[in-house]
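yo, Adenosine 3'-phospho 5'-phosphosulfate transporter 2 is done. seq:
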Amino acid sequence: EEQADDNNSTECSEPGAMDLKFTSSRKYISISVPSKSQAMSPHIKSVDDVVVLGMNLSKFSKPAQFFICVSGVFMFYLIYGYLQELIFSVEGFKPFGWYLTLVQFGFYSIFGLIELQLIQDKRRRIPGKTYMIIAFLTVGTMGLSNTSLGYLNYPTQVIFKCCKLIPVMIGGVFIQGKRYNIVDVSAALCMSLGLIWFTLADSTVAPNFNLTGVILISLALCADAVIGNVQEKAMKLHNGSNSEMVLYSYSIGFVYILFGLTCTSGLSPAVTFCSKHPVQTYGYAFLFSLTGYFGISFVLALIKIFGALLAVTVTTGRKAMTIVLSFLFFAKPFTLQYVWSGLLVVFGIFLNVYSKNMDKIKLPSLLGLWKESVEESKSRTLSQTV
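structure:
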């Protein structure tokens, strides 16, 4: 009888669903938890899966994931920056920055719609009023940024984009009454000085420098600083997806820009000009929008797998490479003041990242370095004496 009981318990312990085994004297209940692949529907991906452009990065090792993400960020965003400057290098296109934003928003809406159709849950979770605010900020960010290229050199625009921390800190002080530590203040000062120095160099060597471009990119920077907080709050509060955010914010923004261009009579001249140069305008704009859409997918994957610290480091390196390629591929005046001011901005970015990750990054203190040098000199003197 004991042997039969042991056999029954062995049978019940095998993996499977809930099993009930009855004998003449005892009742055995065996409960087994199915694996993740058995429990989930084959049509639903695991929450741990990171899928970019239909490729599941979770199947690769960590070094392979890092290489794929970094390669995607550099490849798509470098092409994105090159095409953006290439479009504005077309003679006569500089006044049509808002029309380029309209075309870009149209392509982004189509890409978001296609991506939304490929996922299982197609419901809109975020309220329409919230999307109207996000769309307005998105129009301000991208429209003013594209329009500023009609007045500024591309490297100057990229340097301004690196300094989102400045309006964020100013808004935090005056709106929310925040207080920042010495590292954050030092980062903002470094970025501010680097911006001023870079802008002065641009105004000195560039004959077409216009203060209007500085005002436009500064307003775009302020909108960019606000939109991140609004998007993050909306997605966390209503559990919205990235594809939903892209579709509705850019489609509503498309309506905003179309209405604005129609009211200001700026639509007809832009359409007439672009119809004469379809490849240099619509063709490049399609590739420009496609690479930007793909690039942000790799950035989000990099943040999810490796964290924001490494993602900021990679994107900062990408922006530096974009500036270098801009000077190589497009003829423009150059001065060493660009280098020193750019390095000052990069140092400010490093201080900002260090401030947010002080518990992960342990930098040696000056006192510790001095003690190490004293101990090293003592040991060297002792060894010489011996």
